[in-house]
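Same chain as my last thread, 69 residues:
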Amino acid sequence: MNIHDGKYAWMVKIGEKGQFVIPKEAREIFGLQPGDEILVLGDKERGIAILPREKQQDAIKQIFNSVEE
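reply #2:
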């Protein structure tokens, strides 16, 4: 669901095996295809973020730069 100007939110259920389905609308918006790899980041205070491949490199650089500081 489009929340505001390019910001989205969806509700999903976690199955017994810990799996969930990325909603079709989200897959279409972000161009996710079967077999694509995604990066899952977790922060106990901020939650979980899922990044498609084209965003992974920037996120990893930011993470390692902040660790070095």
